[in-house]
Task: structure prediction
Amino acid sequence: MKDDPNHVYIFDTTLRDGEQSPGASLNHREKMEIAHQLALLNVDIIEAGFPIASPGDFNAVKAIAESVKGPTIAGLARCIDKDISRCAEAVAAAEKARIHVFLATSKIHREFKLKKAEHEILKQAEASIKYARTFVDDVEFSPEDASRTEPEFLAQMVEAAIAAGATTVNIPDTVGYAIPSEFGDLIKRLFDTVPNIQDAIINVHCHNDLGLAVANSLAAVQAGARGVECTINGLGERAGNAALEEVVMALKTRGDQFDGLHTAINTERLYKASRLVSQLTGMAVQRNKAIVGANAFAHESGVHQDGMLKERSTYEIMRPQDVGIEATELVLGKHSGRHAFRHHLTEMGLVLSDEELERSYERFITLADKKKQIYDDDLLMIAREEMTEASDVYVLDQLHVSTGTDTVPTATVRICKGDDTFQDAACGDGPIDAALKTIDRITGIQGKLIDFSLQAVTVGKDAMGEVSVRVKFETGELLSAKSASTDIVEAGARAYLSCVNRLVSSRMKDDDEA
Ligand code: KIV
Ligand code: ZN
Result:
C-alpha cells in the first residue's frame, strides 16, 4: 500500500465510530447506501463495522465486503481470537480486506479497565496481530488511548506491532485530549525512535472533545502520518471524529503547507455524501459547519459581496463547486421524465426498486406542482422517505390538524400497519404536540421529544421544511430521524413516526436474533 509516499490514505469510519454517535444508528440498507457513496467518493478504506458486536453489524460488514468495490473493507476487532475470526469471516469476500485490532495501552486503561501489566498488553497485541495475519495480509493495530500512553511504552508497542505483522499502526487520540503541537510531536517522536516504522503506514484517529480533531490530524500528517481516520460530518463517539470533508479540503486548499501530499478523494462528491449521511442518521449539519454547512459559501456582508464580485478570491478560499455545492442547484422540473429522475438519484448514491422509484416519482411531480424549483435535497428527502416506508411497520396515511389563536390544537391521524388502518385524535399544546400524542395513542409507544429543530431544505418561501427530531423512548432508547414537507406539522409527524419505526424494527431484529 505504500507505493506513493505522498498519498494520504483516507480511512472512513462513519459506519463504525460514526454509527456509535448517540442516536445515529443506521439500518442495513442505510449502511449499504452510505458504503456505496463512500466508494464513489473514493475513500481508501471503509471501516464497515464491528462484526462481533451484533449479528446486524456482522451482516452489514459482510454485505459491504461482498458488494462494495474499490476501497479496502475493514472490520474492527478486539485483541481476542473470537472477535478476530468473526471479523475475518465478515470481510473475507472483499476485493481488499483488512482486520483492524485494538487494545488499550495507556496507564489509566491498563490499570482500571484491563487490569494488565505492560508486558501482558504487548504479548496480547502481538499474538492477535499474528492471528489476524493468518486470515488477511492487511492488518491494522490501534493502541487505544495512545495519546495518553507513556511515549516510551507507545514506541515499544508500535515497534512490536509492526514486527508482528501490522501493516498499518493507528495512533488514536481516543478521548480527544491532545492539542496539535503535542500530537504532532508525538508522531514525530515515533518516527524518530521506532526503528521499523517505515515498514507500516501510520494512521491517526482523533476525537473532537476539545474541537481539535481536524487540527490534530493535520499536525500528525505534517509529522509523517499518512493515514487519517475520519467520518463524514465528523460523526462519532461523543463530540465525534475528525470530519473527513475538513481534513480533505484542508490538505487540498493548503497544499503549500503539506509538501505535495494529496488524497484520492473526489471532492466534488463531498456535499452529496454529507447530505446523505445527515439524512440517513437524522443528525443535522449545523449551518456554519465548515465545507458542507448551508452557510459555508454564503456571503452576507455588503463589503464581502462587493469584494467577491470584483474578485472571488478576496473572500473565498475554495469554490463551492469543488465540494459539489453548485451542482445541487436546480436539477429537475415537473417535465422531467422517470429516466432523468432515476439517473439523478443514482448519482446521489441511492438505488431504488421500481416500486420505490414510481412512488418517489409521483411525490416529486406533486411537489413540483407546489414548488417551482426542485433541488437535490428535495429529491433526497422524497426518495429516502419512500425507501424507508417500504420496510416501515407504521405508515402515515392521513394527518389533519386544527389550530389557531382561539382554538385548542387538535390532530386527527390515520396510520396503516400492514393491511390494517388505525385512526385516532388528540389535543395538545400546539399542532405538533397534538399530532405526536395521537401517534403515541395509535402505536401504544410513548416517546419523549428531546429535540425538535426546523430548517429550510432549500431556498425560497416555498421551500420544504426539514424537521429533525430526537426521541427518547420509555425503554431508554434514544433515536433521531428527519423528514421534510412543505407542511412542517406533517414533517414533524413523519420524523417522529420514523423514530417509532426504527425502534420497532430494532426490537424485531433483537427478537429474531435471540
Ligand atoms: O477512538 C478510538 O480509540 C477507537 C479505536 C477503536 C481506534 O475508535
Ligand atoms: Zn474512535
User: Anything to note?
Assistant: Residues 330-386 form one domain. Residues 17, 172, 174, 205, 207, 237 surround zinc ion (ligand 2) (CB under 6 Å).
